[in-house]
Amino acid sequence: MARRSNAEKEAEAEAIKNWNPRYKHNVIIYLFIYLWIYGILGAVTGITNDAALSYYKIVAPHLISGLNIFNAATAILMSVMIATVHKWGYRKILLILPPMTAIFMALTCITTNQLVIMIAYTISWTAIGVYDLMYPLMWTSYVPGKIRTKMFSTVMIVNLITQTICTFLGGKAVVWFFGLIRGIPYHEASVLSGKSEMLTGQTLADYTNSYRILLYITAAVTMLAFVLALFIHDVPRDYRSTADDKEPSRAEKMAMYKKLLSKKTLMWIVYIAGIQLGARLVAVYVPIYLNSYLHIPRDVTSTINTFIQAAMLIGYFFAPFLEKKMGAIVSVAAGTLTCVPVMLLLANGRRLGSGTVLFVIVGLLLFLRTGLANATMPIQQEVQMVIVDKDLRPAFTGVVQIAYAVVGVIDGLFTEFYLFTTQDGYANAYYIAAVIYVIASVLLLVFFAKKYNRILDTANAQDDNQN
């Protein structure tokens, strides 16, 4: 990565020096909340996605078999909830999320009724997911333009590191609790947990209770995020253009909806939905592709997955540099397009050798695909915030979430009933994703590159002047 010029360093230092103290305070508090929720709790892809889904597979199998549908419902509820930011502000929403998470997560452990567990899962995961939607809104309001892309990268790096740690710790905690309940050594509990589908009677009950203990603890300590949220200090002008709280007129609402569904926003949604569809066809199923299609041993698969996590981390570091050198739109499109040759090679994974040679080549290709795909994610998050006015950002975030929900349903139906009916589908998915990536990137360049490539520079300058 090229070194920053002295002028860039001085501009960033000046931005930090002149950073509004209240804005900086809110950013720091939210970073602590985010670190707690995603770090200590591993609330989405750490403990509660690794351990909780394993628990729900035991107590509510219909939830897991229909997970795409429930996740789509969660996305829709998230879109409704995030849209209320324009009215209620950041602090009130952040005060609602912890008890909402804790109560309904605990409810999934208290009851054995599958329907209640499904409803409680949907509500608790809605609350958890809103944290991911809040920081782009807050960062766009509170972080100086000169360091905004860097701060987007920072929060994603924090998320990735902490969720990786919690994924590692979550499984070990379950085994430890299982051993305590059964009164057996950790190693013996670990062996039994590796054959969970064969457990019956009291052994299965004890294993299930070990998950419950972890989820109860998770639900309880979530409430620290409530205490932290008390220290957020927001005012109406932070999340809407005026401090006036009156209900907009019908004409004003129509004008707002027209802006929300402009050609610019619709094309962005088409792009983001296309990329999401392509990514979901391959990223989620990497372990199956490695294990079932290429027949790579599970311990090697685990090592490759660790390198994939590292690739995401490295990719995030490059985002500020890419945006400065290439512009926002060209950077995002380039990151997507450079994945295409790599995915075409992965589609032909069985022709890349065998044994150690195959492990190394496939591992390197997945490392490259993940790094390239994620290098521009912070830029993409920021662009999504600035292509609409401040008043429309929560609503637009909600619209994007609905698009994700639709994509999730399409992906689930396509993979379930067509693509993954044979093992070859896990390789063919890379061909399909590559085609989608090319089409989406071309659309992005055609509709956005000429007029909006430096959109972040313009938007950040305007926001800094207003602040």
Q: Look at the structure and give the mean pLDDT.
A: 85
Compute the separation of the termini in Å: 32 Å
Biggest beta-sheet profile: none
Figure out the total of helices.
Answer: 23
Helix and strand composition category: mainly alpha
Number of strands: 0
| CATH top level label of the largest domain | Mainly Alpha
CATH homologous superfamily heading of the largest domain: MFS general substrate transporter like domains
- The radius of gyration computed from the alpha-carbon positions, rounded to a whole number of angstroms, is 23 Å
The CATH topology of the largest domain comes to Growth Hormone, Chain: A
The share of residues in helices is over 70%
User: What is the molecular shape?
Assistant: globular
Number of domains: 2
SSE order:
HHHHHHHHHHHHHHHHHHHHHHH
| Residue windows where pLDDT falls under 50 for at least 5 positions | 43-48
Structure description:
The protein has 467 residues and is mostly helical. It folds into 2 domains: 19-240, MFS general substrate transporter like domains (Growth Hormone, Chain: A); 248-467, Up-down Bundle (Growth Hormone, Chain: A), CATH 1.20.1250.20. 82% of the residues lie in helices and 0% in strands. It contains 23 helices and no strands. The protein has helices at residues 6-17, 21-40, 47-59, 61-65, 67-83, 85-110, 114-142, 145-182, 186-193, 201-221, 223-229, 236-239, 250-260, 263-282, 286-293, 298-326, 328-337, 339-347, 355-374, 377-386, 393-417, 425-452, 455-466. The chain is globular, with a radius of gyration of 23 Å. The two termini are 32 Å apart. The model is unreliable at 43-48 (pLDDT under 50).
